[in-house]
Design brief:
- Two copies of one chain form a homodimer.
- By secondary structure, chain A is mostly helical.
- The first copy, chain A, has two domains: about 1-65, Orthogonal Bundle (Arc Repressor Mutant, subunit A), CATH 1.10.10; about 70-210, Four Helix Bundle (Hemerythrin (Met), subunit A), CATH 1.20.120.530.
- The first copy, chain A, contains nine helices and three strands, in the order αβααββαααααα.
- Chain A has helices spanning about 1-15, 25-35, 40-50, 70-95, 100-120, 120-140, 145-160, 170-185, 190-210, and strands spanning about 25, 55, 60-65.
- The first copy, chain A, has a three-stranded antiparallel sheet with strand order 1-3-2.
- In chain A, helix 1 (about 1-15) crosses helix 3.
- The N and C termini of chain A lie far apart (about 40 Å).
- The structure holds a DNA duplex (30 and 30 nucleotides).
- Chains A, B: Keywords: DNA-binding, Transcription, Transcription regulation.
Chain lengths: ~230, ~230
DNA sequence: ACAGCATACATTGCATACAAAGCATCCCTC
DNA sequence: GAGGGATGCTTTGTATGCAATGTATGCTGT
């Protein structure tokens, strides 16, 4: 299925920053590069549009970037949803429905995260961080919440790299993760929810501080072409 | 743009129950009925798939229905997101950023809702109820949360009709709405969030009680064709 | 009569052709 | 020299044709 392949390749490249926000994608150019006809490209672009990763802008689509304001909104939603999943995960743990191995995975991911941030490998840290949070969400066993968080993370994941750059923030992230794991392991639902929400909010602040300066001014309209 | 038209018409019909859950839609049949070619139909179906309103099932797509379990998950997410929007709306009210007219609209919608439920017009009540909740979400001025709630409501709206059928439930709904409006009007953020979440949870229970019985067993696989 | 295989049909996936629409550019006129 | 209009090109929207695939049905053999 070529549509699927095109979709995945474009999506991968967008969420990793391979396409600059505001960059224009035309059906023809994409189909030429990926060597398929326009039909599967069209469908892939439509799906990406549904995901909020590109948006139609007159002629064709441009890759979307969340403005500073929109990013804040996204983090607010993330805080809310991750509070839910953390809470649910803790409740499930209390009910004995969480396998100990899953909890161990969480701890292991966080330890790995500590190591790579120590080494200054922020790209790897970004990935591990996302994996950690996804694992927590999985423990809630709520497919709808999980899917929404997946979509949301696709949109904010670029900014999470920036959120690691302020000094001491990586250590704080690891510490907060550890707290979260403990709360879940103890089955403290409300506490876990609060920690998750607090962590997301702290990350939002760090992301805002971490990005050099263009916070919000550039909604993707100005990036056209090099001189 | 025919794609848009096809998408909207199919979506409208699905969320209002015009297509039975599990019913099969083929590109050809839809394109014949709506008198367009397969191309715009394809795109519309893909968008609906992204919305979770249909899902591909081997040959073509079938209109999706949330199982009882999935519905519970959806309501959990709804509770979380509506807590967020209610909380944010109240905070904005406290900051003086809400127009009094918007608050009045809320009250008016709720009064209307009381009237039509009194009259037993559940179809109208379903619509007004959704409008009320959407208005609250709009007051939060968070486009991302708003869009997620829109998508979520498309999936659960059918069940909200059932949630009104248990005796006394309509009165409780109106009363809970009134409480919510008061909390927002008073700028009581945390209280508003709690009321919204509690209301969503109560609605979930009522929906479960309101639907005759097939709760969960039928995930849409069995409805094929009449005898 | 039942099981297995082959064939025919329904349906999707992809490509290509065609039409329409928007935008930029260039020329002509004032 | 500047402004307006016409023309041409780029790009999307829609239709249709063709190939591939999976399913159902019917036939044949045991």
């Amino acid at each position: 299925m070529q549509t699927e392949s095109v979709y995945r390749r474009l999506r991968e490249r967008i969420v990793t920053g391979g396409y600059a926000p505001g960059e224009r994608l035309t059906e023809l150019s994409v189909s030429a590069v990926l060597e398929v006809s326009r039909t599967p490209v069209r469908e892939a672009l439509r799906r990406l549009e549904g995901d909020g990763l590109v948006r139609s802008a007159g002629r064709g689509v441009i890759v979307a970037a969340l403005s500073g304001e929109a990013l804040a909104h996204a983090y607010a939603v993330r805080a809310s949803l991750e509070a839910l999943t953390a809470e649910t995960a803790a409740a499930r743990q209390r009910a004995g429905r969480i396998a100990p191995a899953d909890l161990a995975d969480l701890t292991r991911d966080n330890t790995l995260l500590a190591e790579v941030t120590q080494a200054g490998d922020y790209d790897q840290a970004m990935l591990l961080n996302r994996r950690f949070h996804r694992r927590v969400a999985e423990l809630a066993a709520n497919p709808i919440a999980l899917e929404m968080l997946d979509r949301l993370w696709d949109q904010i994941v670029v900014s999470t790299r920036a959120s690691l750059t302020p000094p001491q923030r990586p250590d704080a992230v690891v510490a907060e993760h550890r707290l979260l794991v403990c709360a879940i392991a103890d089955g403290e639902a409300e506490l876990a929810g609060r920690i998750a929400a607090g962590h997301a909010r702290a990350t939002a602040l760090a992301a805002e501080a971490g990005v050099p300066d263009d916070s919000g001014a550039n909604s993707g309209a100005t990036v056209k072409k090099g001189p």
